[in-house]
Amino acid sequence: MPVSIDFPISKLKSFGVTALVLIGIGLLAYELPDILGKQVLNPEQHVTTVIWTGSVYSLFALGYALVFSILGVLNLSHSAVFMWGGYIGVMSVIRYDIPIYYTLPLAMLGGGLIGVAVDLVAFAPLRRRNAPRISQLISSLGASAVLVSLAQLEFGTSPERFPRTELKKLPYEATKAREYTVNSLGLDFRITPLQIAIIVIAFALMFLLQYLVARTRTGKAMRVVAFNQKVAGLLSISVGGIFRLTFFLAGALAGAAGVLYALAYPSLTPFTGDEMALKGLTVIVLGGLGSIRGAVLGGILVAAFEVYATAIGYSWLKDALPFVALFLILLFRPQGLLGEANVKRA
Amino acid sequence: MGFLASVGLNDFVITLMFVNAILAMSIYLTLYGGMFSLANAGFMAIGSYVSVILTQNHDWPFLPAILAGMVAAGLIAIPIGLPVLRLRDIYLAIATIGFVEITRIVILNFDKIVDEVYTRLHMTSEPPKITNGPLGITGIPVQTKLEHLVIAVIILAYFMMRMHRSRFGRALAAIRQDENVAASQGINVVYYKNVAFVLGAMMAGLGGGFSGHLSRIIQPGSYGFGTAVDILAYSVLGGISSWYGPILGGLALTALPEVLRPLKEYTGLINGIVLLIFIAYLPGGLGDPALWRSARKSASRISNFITKGKTADAGA
Amino acid sequence: MLVLKHVSRQFGGLMALQNVEMHLPAGNIIGLIGPNGAGKTTLINCMTGLDHPTSGHIEFNGTPIEKKPAHRITALGMARTYQNIRLFGEMTVLENLVVAQHGLGRATLADSLLQTPRHRREIARLRDNALQLLKRFHLDQSADVVAGNLPYGDQRRLEMARALATNPKLILLDEPTAGMNPVETTELGEQILRMKADGKTLMVVEHDMSLIAQVCDEIYVLNFGQIIAHGTHQEIKNNPVVVEAYLGQEEGA
């Protein structure tokens, strides 16, 4: 299957699609109450929630997109790496009194290393004998099972969280919601500095990745490997090295997303990853498999489905809506919102 | 049976092993046609719920209810397969996962949906409780017997074995190897893909019906993403190069965690590690004909050695 | 036998075929030549239903086929080979030819699963046909070899046999000489002439002018998706437009 790492549809078009979707999300926040005849409090609030949860989803899902675009396989252990990232963050505070600031780089490093280990154990042996992708999928599933069991052994199954006392030590009273008003637009929303930080960190990391892939020599090498491994070999690019780097980056993203998730939700268990796995897959399919920008848009969309479904009082629809959207997208636009149609070769 | 029970394989587990063998065969059919469909957990849920609702709420006898669940799964497979099977590879896998999750969520919220419909239509009667939400249907008498399953597995295995050399099976194999060329040789690709999908769905529905009447309780949570990939793992680890591979996979992978149960909290870990080793070192799966040939060879070598006191290699 | 009217195929902004007009009379061997990337394979794909023209009409023995799926067109009596060999590599040589006759069988799904006598008789009949074809292409020794393990030349011949297995009226050969030496090419030419003698119509897509000269009654020249010339081998050889499109490119290369 020809894979592309972010050669999306033209910039203008992808900008247009993104803008349309975002405007749609914004408008829906205001129009839903009228359409359904239900009272919805504070529509701006929903938009903020969509953005900060969506940014975590996107960051997490990017790891799938990255591995898929370079290797053409789905790494089902990504969600387990994410869960480990969360634990590395929380446990380094609880067990070793490490300040919260340092948990992010720690979890990224840890996640990256776990990612490389997964590659060595679950993917590399199969790649060497050219195993079908379906075997690699099962293998990554085995790796995921191992990681989840290890977390169960090490951390138990009761929910963990960053200690409240430590969170309180963060500057600007980070966990305290604040009211922000934009008078000129008549907007009024509440958000905590911590949530703002989550948004900023997630988007910063995503921009960094986009920069790395699009602008640097390494990124170029990655794109060549994604395009054709033989060609990459001829250009004396170390294909194995690029694979390991890809797994490291994906793992680091998962680690970061894990910490941000743990900061946002006080309920980390070894099974947290399983819940996120499907969300992540939905995100990258909605946006377009292998597209970085698509993953960002997809994350926002999935968050929007969840938040709005809850807001209008059909919280049970919350889980179903993303899949309905996924189903429809696959049937009518399999390349996803920002993905490029595979050019048919004669 | 005494020995099996001593390693953790009691009657319940053995029956479950055969249920999973059926599920493994159900996905094998689509894999054989080159379709990476994970939809069978959804069809299993449909077969399970339909048959249990029929026996529990409508007093149907066991076997007709099971067959009805199988038919229901097959019927739902038709409108799903037609659009979805145009997708390939990972896209098909994810779309079918979407179907599995939607099915699970609909079953989970079925009573709420019915309730909503009653309100909208201003119906005065009390809406019925059918699927009973996340708690599921409980107190289902155990009616599935090992005999039923052994018979079902034998019949299905016979079909699978025959399929390889049949017109139907060859068409599927051709589609798997090159869909376009298959079409150019006169094979109606859309038809065969859908037939395989529907037959697979019916088998999954059958497995679902049996499992529903085995464990006293059915809950929507047992038919999600995890189940979908488990079914795939049975088939792939069993090996899709032979008809008996998936059966072996279903039996072995169900037995494995039970046999490992004495390891207590390490069960899950060792189970995962064994999976990794299987997939890394048995490329053709447990049912790889080459593996069995070489096993037979080494067995005969050993017996030769014992009887004649020399290695078989000398004669070969 | 096969008539193309105003056939165009567009991929996004790219015109792969533009207003192609062709006429393949029954019982003839038609050559289609053109430089790399001229659109030859796209044209064959449109004829056989693997791709469909964006606009225009294709008639096969009077039946419009431009929108028909590939298996229907095959049932009407068209068969093809591929530029890059595309056998069913995991099947044996014999199985390749049995599955190739799929459209000639009538057994139902139930026959298949229950192995009814009807199904057994049908498989036996198809196997007999397949064995005859193998003899004709000197492949009967390799009947039980897995097709992917055949030597290259045998794979080419098996593909030709597979095309014949559908009992076609028209056979499209997409660069059949690719990778062959001159001796093999001449042999192939003889096979092609034999098919003509059996009453088949053929279209040969080629780079190699020697085969075209050996077998073709008429030649079409395709360049940049357009037919730029049509005539006998002599006419084409001396056509300045063709010389420029064809030889000009070769000199440049």
Which structural class do the helices and strands of chain B define?
A: mainly alpha
CATH topology of the largest domain in chain C: Rossmann fold
Q: What's the CATH topology name of the largest domain in chain B? A: ABC transporter involved in vitamin B12 uptake, BtuC
Please state the overall shape of chain B, judged from the principal axes of the Cα atoms. Answer: globular
**How many extended strands of chain C?**
10
Work out the helicity level of chain B: over 70%
Total beta-strand segments of chain B = 0
> Given this structure, which CATH class of the largest domain in chain B is correct?
Mainly Alpha
Biggest pleated sheet of chain B: none
Instruction: Give the name of the CATH architecture of the largest domain in chain B.
Output: Orthogonal Bundle
Name the chain pair whose interface involves the most residues.
A-B, 44 and 41 residues
Number of distinct helices of chain B:
14
SSE run of chain C: EEEHEEHEHHHHEHEHEEHH
Distance between the termini of chain B: 40 Å
Describe it:
Chain A has helices spanning 11-36, 43-71, 78-96, 100-128, 133-155, 164-168, 193-215, 217-227, 229-234, 239-264, 272-287, 292-311, 317-332; strands spanning 178-182, 187-191. Chain A is mostly helical and 346 residues long. Chain A has one domain (11-332): ABC transporter involved in vitamin B12 uptake, BtuC. In chain A, strand 1 (178-182) and strand 2 (187-191) form a beta hairpin. Chain B has 316 residues and is mainly alpha-helical. Chain B folds into 2 domains: 2-285, ABC transporter involved in vitamin B12 uptake, BtuC, CATH 1.10.3470; 290-316, no CATH class. Helices cover 70% and strands 0% of the residues of chain B. Chain B has helices at residues 2-6, 11-32, 40-57, 62-84, 89-108, 110-120, 146-163, 167-177, 179-184, 189-212, 225-238, 245-259, 267-281, 289-308. Chain B is globular. Chain C folds into 2 domains: 2-87 and 167-252, P-loop containing nucleotide triphosphate hydrolases (Rossmann fold); 88-149, no CATH class. Helix content of chain C is 42%, strand content 24%. Chain C contains 10 helices and 10 strands. Chain C has helices at residues 40-48, 70-76, 93-100, 109-114, 117-136, 152-165, 182-197, 209-215, 233-237, 240-252, and strands spanning 2-11, 14-24, 29-33, 55-60, 63-64, 78-80, 170-174, 201-206, 218-223, 226-231. A 6-stranded mixed β-sheet of chain C has the order 6-7-8-3-9-10, with helices on both faces. In chain C, helix 3 runs parallel beside helix 6 (152-165). The chains are: A mainly alpha (346), B mainly alpha (316), C alpha/beta (253). Chain A binds chain B through residues 1, 68, 74, 76, 121-122, 125-126, 129, 131, 133-135, 137-139, 141-146, 148-150, 152-153, 274, 277-278, 281-282, 285, 289, 316, 319-320, 323-324, 326-327, 330-331, 334, and chain B through 31, 36, 83-84, 86-87, 89-91, 93-95, 97-99, 101-102, 105-106, 108-109, 112, 225-226, 229, 232-233, 236-237, 265-266, 268-269, 271-273, 275-276, 279-280, 283.
